[in-house]
Amino acid sequence: MPNTPTSGTAFAGGGHAEAADGERAGGTEPATIAALHGTVRRIAANVEQVLVGKPEVVRIALVTLLAEGHLLVEDVPGVGKTSLAKALARSIDCTVNRIQFTPDLLPSDITGVSLYNRQAEAFEFRAGPVFANIVVGDEINRASPKTQSALLECMEEDQVTVDGETYHLDAPFMVIATQNPIEMEGTYALPEAQRDRFTARVSIGYPDQQAELAMVDEHAGREPMDQLRPVADADQVRSLLRAVRAVHVSTELRRYVIDLVTATRTLPELRLGASPRSTLQLVRAARAQAALSGRDYVIPDDVQAVAVPVLAHRLVLTSEARATRRSASDLVGSLLRKVDVPRGDTGSRR
Predict the structure, then answer these.
(1) Among 180, 160, 181, which Cα is nearest to 170's?
(2) In the sheet that 71-74 helps form, which strands lie side by side, from edge to edge?
(3) Mean pLDDT of 140-153
(4) CA–CA dist 182, 185 (Å, integer)
(5) Looking at residue 166, what is its pLDDT?
(6) Alpha-carbon distance 261 to 171, whole Å?
(7) What are the pLDDT digits (tens) for 243-274?
């Protein structure tokens, strides 16, 4: 039977009512999930001091962090894209580097370069800003495609290769990139291979009047970013990632994810459907969403809550679909209503 997707929230309380069966079947101890829930609540509260009135955007950012992925924040200037990235980075006591992408930026400005040391009579590698736990890439689509491609290897393999030498990046490693819409002056479209490496894409949008009034009251006299203090560290984040990896995904739900992704490849409105990489990313994001909801097993609502942010930016519409103003998000939403949802005990092991 078709099912209407549910929106889901970052810290839904409904998951606890189902926890009894999930704890018996799942792969993570309840105490670990409870600790994860508390840590993520603190991070979310920290970020929401800066990004007022956007809990859904914060949820997707945290899902991406726990899914060991990378986040693309796309919207018009001035709505808080960079503030979201910087607030999340400051909430975790780990290494953070920021890269301002410009048309004259070179790949070596990101990855690093080998320089000759005359005293040692040898080349030495000078690491670039990508060597950090969280890398904030501001306005990534203002750099040339050649420079954008410098992130491909590190985002996929957590390593950088320069002059034949491979250098590994420490975990956690997350790229949070912002970009302006491609209709704006001075932007380059991200290549499909680059977009596919971002686990999720989120648009912040304009705040409603109440949220904007609260922002004026709270932010007009001070800079909220200066008040942020870390509420977690890199070791805690690594512990959270281990807990999320152990969240159980039943055979039925794995098939459901594959059915969703496969369906994108047959839509006549699409020139390019979702890749096998997106299947893996959707499963990881669903695990993270389940953990955020206080469960150690995934249910269909978790998949539906993250499907649009994970899949939409990877799809390439045909010119006919663009002419009718269909969006990739609309197409994913329609698939969620059409693809059969697994029934029964999806929390138990098979």
Answers:
(1) 160
(2) 96-100, 134-138, 174-179, 71-74, 200-202
(3) 89
(4) 8
(5) 92
(6) 28
(7) 999 999 999 999 999 999 999 999 999 999 99
pTM for this prediction: 0.84
Among residues 338, 343, 345, 348, the alpha carbon closest in space to that of 3 is found at 338
Structural Rg of the chain based on CA atoms = 21
Q: Are 37 and 196 in contact, with CB atoms under 8 Å apart?
A: no
Pairing of strands 92-93, 96-100: unpaired
- Signed CA dihedral, 287, 157, 142, 101: sign only: positive
Q: Do the Cβ atoms of 295 and 14 come closer than 8 Å?
A: no
H/E segment holding residue 178 = strand 174-179
CA separation for the pair 196, 151 (Å, rounded):
12
Residue 126's SS3 state is: strand
Q: Could you tell me if 32 and 238 are in contact, meaning their C-beta atoms sit under 8 angstroms apart?
A: no
**How far is Cα 213 from Cα 288, in angstroms, rounded to an integer?**
32
d(CA 73, CA 176): 7
Per the omega criterion (within 30 degrees of 0), is the bond before 107 cis? no
pLDDT band at 223 (very low <50, low <70, confident <90, very high): confident
CB contact at 8 A, 349 and 14? no
CA separation, residue 197 to residues 68, 71, 154, 348 (Å): 12, 9, 10, 31
Q: Which helix (H) or strand (E) holds 125?
A: strand 122-127
Winning range, highest mean pLDDT, from 32-41, 173-182, 255-264: 255-264
196-222: average pLDDT: 81
pLDDT averaged over every residue in the chain = 85
Q: Any bridge partners for residue 312, and if so which?
A: none
Please classify residue 344 by burial: count the beta carbons closer than 10 Å to its beta carbon, then call 0-12 exposed, 13-18 middle and 19+ buried.
Answer: exposed
Asked if the model's pLDDT at residue 16 lies above 60, the reply is: no
Distance CA 349, CA 69 (A): 26
Beta bridge partners of 72: 177, 201
H, E, C per residue of 77-110: CCCCHHHHHHHHHHCEECCEEEEECCCCCCCHHH
